[in-house]
Design brief:
Blueprint (H helix, E strand, L loop, with lengths): L8 H4 L2 H17 L9 H16 L5 H14 L19 H19 L3 H16 L3 H14 L7 H14 L3 H14 L4 H14 L3 H9 L1 H4 L6 H11 L3
Helix pairs in contact: 2-3, 2-4, 3-4, 4-5, 4-6, 5-6, 6-7, 7-8, 8-9, 9-10, 10-11, 10-13, 11-13
Length: 242
């Protein structure tokens, strides 16, 4: 389970350091293949703040926070076939090389510091890297590990829940993906609208048109304040409302 943390006087004297980590966290969040499209406005700020907080200060050790900050920096490293002469910033020749480096770095953090707040972030980052490497079963295990150890109110649970749906889709298991998105709606209520939209999509792709249509027919009623109501209506039109 994630552990609580308190801002030390030293941390409060280091706003620049917090800003650096926050920038890295924002870059990682925006680069994620899926939850980035879910997060907007104030929610995005809360998520980035949570990541930055876990990196800057943790109850387990400040060293774990620094290691996680370095991991986020690694995730943001560019792909450069041939680095310029004298280049000092880290880069990778291929996306695969980068993702494998991320996995290795995350494993080092987990081995050294365990699954505290920063360690849990390393689990999620590792899962993303494995997803990009198309190692679906391993990615699924990391996302399940995150969900099993993170607190119920963890700000990034929605991401791991959606990731399970995307892993199932990648494996061709559309019914499994529908179940994953249904779980996302239950366990991450602020994102229930997106979960319903994605569940309807995969059900339609699996040939379960009536089930998909029923979700979309009730979308506006179930998610009155959602910004996705328009998308749901458009998808319902494509399916043919009855």
């Amino acid at each position: 389970m994630a552990q609580s943390s308190a801002l030390s006087r030293k941390d409060m004297r280091e706003p620049d350091r917090f800003q650096v980590v926050a920038n890295r966290a924002a870059a990682w969040l925006s680069a994620r293949k899926k939850p980035a499209i879910l997060v907007g406005g104030a929610v995005a700020l809360l998520v980035v703040a949570a990541i930055a907080t876990a990196s800057v200060r943790t109850s387990r050790a400040e060293a774990a926070g620094r290691a996680t900050s370095a991991l986020l920096d690694l995730v943001a490293a560019p792909i450069v076939a041939k680095p310029a002469e004298g280049a000092t910033s880290r880069s990778f020749p291929t996306e695969e090389a980068k993702e494998r480096a991320v996995v290795a770095e995350a494993d080092q953090i987990l081995a050294k510091y365990g699954a505290g707040r920063s360690g849990l972030l390393a689990v999620l980052v590792k899962g993303d890297a494995l997803y990009e490497l198309k190692e679906w079963d391993k990615a699924q295990s990391e996302y399940e590990r995150y969900l099993g150890e993170a607190q119920k109110g963890d700000s990034l649970r929605f991401g791991a829940l959606e990731d399970l749906g995307l892993v199932a889709e990648a494996k061709g298991d559309l019914e499994g993906a529908a179940r994953a998105y249904e779980r996302m709606g239950r366990e991450a209520p602020p994102f229930a609208d997106r979960a319903d939209l994605e569940r309807a999509r995969v059900l339609a792709a699996a040939g379960k048109i009536d089930e998909a249509r029923q979700i979309l027919l009730k979308f506006a009623e179930n998610h009155k304040d959602s910004s996705l109501v328009g998308q749901a209506s458009q998808r319902l039109e494509r399916l043919g409302a009855k």
